Amino acid sequence: MFDLAGKVVLATGANSGIGLGFLMGCARQGADVIVWGRRAKRNAEALAALKQAGAGRVHHEAVDVAEEEAVIAAFASSLAALGRVDCVFANAGFSSRAASFADLTTETYHSLLNVNQHGAFYTLREAARHMRDRANAGDPGIDPPHHRHPRCSRCR
């Protein structure tokens, strides 16, 4: 469908489900991928599947996105491993298992906020800082007009 060769895609909550599915699609288009999830073993299993799907370079971080410092450290480590990030999918999250809103505990409510809202904020803020710094250094962040991909109708 399109060429992601040379692009680095990071997804949170990406060792299963929607996050892994998103990275699989990107891998099939030639992207390098970064898996963020809380469980290192499941991350490694996801990397094996992503390599098989065609991912170029792969990397994973065991990170709890609810922890701001963990996100900052994982983003720095991901950059050290793959050099850049071009796309971020803030997918990590969970839903309450409470029987009803009235039964939702304060502890569960705060956990929901910490992962679903704050985790997305921390992750996207680090990505935006990185992409802003690259742009300020002259990196346009987009493919040149003639990327010469053999399956692209514009390039034939």
From TrEMBL:
Classification via InterPro entries: NAD(P)-bd_dom_sf (IPR036291), SDR_fam (IPR002347)
One Pfam family matching this protein: adh_short
Renumbered residue ranges of the record's region Disordered: 134-156
Keyword entries, A-Z: Oxidoreductase
Gene Ontology MF: a single term: oxidoreductase activity
Compositional bias of kind Basic residues: 146-156
Similarity comment: family membership: Belongs to the short-chain dehydrogenases/reductases (SDR) family.
Record-linked PANTHER family: 5-KETO-D-GLUCONATE 5-REDUCTASE, ALCOHOL DEHYDROGENASE, PUTATIVE (AFU_ORTHOLOGUE AFUA_3G03445)-RELATED
The protein, known as: SDR family NAD(P)-dependent oxidoreductase
Native organism taxonomy: Bacteria, Pseudomonadati, Pseudomonadota, Alphaproteobacteria, Sphingomonadales
